[in-house]
Design goal:
By secondary structure, the protein is α+β, with helices and mostly antiparallel strands. The protein contains two helices and eight strands.
Length: 164
């Protein structure tokens, strides 16, 4: 007596391939969203590192440090540079965070008495390590985030995030 060979039919193989393709098609958008979310988190970490350095420099040097918003850059520098720092034009002291062409980073100061358009783009960390309460907003190719910084601890927390 001959036994039939154990094998899959063409219909079974086609059905399996169709199911696998549907699962892959559903997974692709979520993978893209995770990479956009990762890029957003990296930009927040990059800015937060700069803010943390400002706080540490202020405490260790017992003088104020300031983050200054410029055209396409956020700079960390001493509030009152020493004569040596002025001669070297901040070389070795100043640190910059460059922004891409399609990236914007702006500061909101809720405690400021000035209208938002007249508020200078500067955020000071005093020698005690405390700072003015601020909101920092970012918009770039991966999406946008909004972070709130605690004035007593200087710790930032993302309160809104939108990925593209």
């Amino acid at each position: 007596m001959t036994r039939p060979h154990a094998a899959f039919t063409l219909v079974e193989l086609m059905l399996t391939i169709a199911i696998v393709l549907m699962i892959v098609m559903l997974a692709i958008p979520s993978v893209g969203g995770m990479s956009a979310e990762k890029r957003l988190h990296e930009t927040f970490e990059k800015f937060d590192d700069l803010a943390r350095k400002a706080q540490l420099n202020a405490i260790s040097g017992q003088r104020s440090w300031v983050l200054v918003w410029g055209e396409g850059v956020v700079s960390l520098q001493p509030d009152q540079p020493t004569p040596e720092e002025r001669l070297n034009e901040g070389a070795g002291v100043r640190e910059d965070m460059a922004l891409g062409e399609d990236e914007t980073l702006w500061l909101e100061r809720p405690a400021s008495l000035l209208p938002p358009k007249e508020t200078p783009g500067e955020w000071t960390f005093w020698r005690s390590g405390t700072c003015e309460p601020v909101f920092v907003n970012y918009h770039g190719p991966a999406g946008s985030w909004r972070a709130q910084y605690n004035p007593l601890t200087g710790i930032g927390e993302i309160i809104e995030q939108v990925t593209k």
